[in-house]
């Protein structure tokens, strides 16, 4: 993986994690945590959305939207697990 690709992943992850933290209040994990949640969310969305037949677009904006959806799903699941324990 090139350095530029890694930086793009980190920026998309950071933006997606930050937006997901705003959407799902109370489950923010700080800057590093939000980057991780955003990147994991991008993987979740990249796996889940095409299987549901949902294609939201291409490019950076489409990647951010997909990652935000995945990050929100991840934050909701984490919130449900926290409440259950």
Overall pLDDT: 82
Low-confidence stretches: none
Number of domains: 1
Strand content: under 5%
Number of helices: 3
Quick synopsis:
The chain has 85 residues and is an all-alpha fold. It has helices spanning 3-23, 30-51, 59-84.
Topology of this structure?
Layout (H helix, E strand, L loop, with lengths): L2 H21 L6 H22 L7 H26 L1
Helix pairs in contact: 1-2, 1-3, 2-3
Description:
This protein has one domain. 81% of the residues lie in helices and 0% in strands. The chain has helices at 3-23, 30-51, 59-84. With 85 residues, the chain is mainly alpha-helical. The mean pLDDT is 82.
Supply database-style keywords:
85 residues, single chain, 81% helix, mainly alpha, globular, 3 helices
């Amino acid at each position: 993986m090139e350095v530029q690709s890694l930086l793009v992943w980190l920026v998309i992850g950071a933006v997606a994690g930050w937006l997901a933290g705003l959407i799902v209040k109370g489950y923010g994990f700080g800057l590093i945590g939000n980057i991780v949640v955003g990147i994991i969310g991008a993987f979740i969305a990249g796996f889940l959305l095409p299987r549901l037949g949902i294609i939201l677009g291409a490019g950076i904006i489409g990647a951010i939207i997909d990652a935000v959806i995945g990050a929100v799903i991840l934050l909701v699941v984490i919130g449900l697990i926290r409440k259950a324990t």
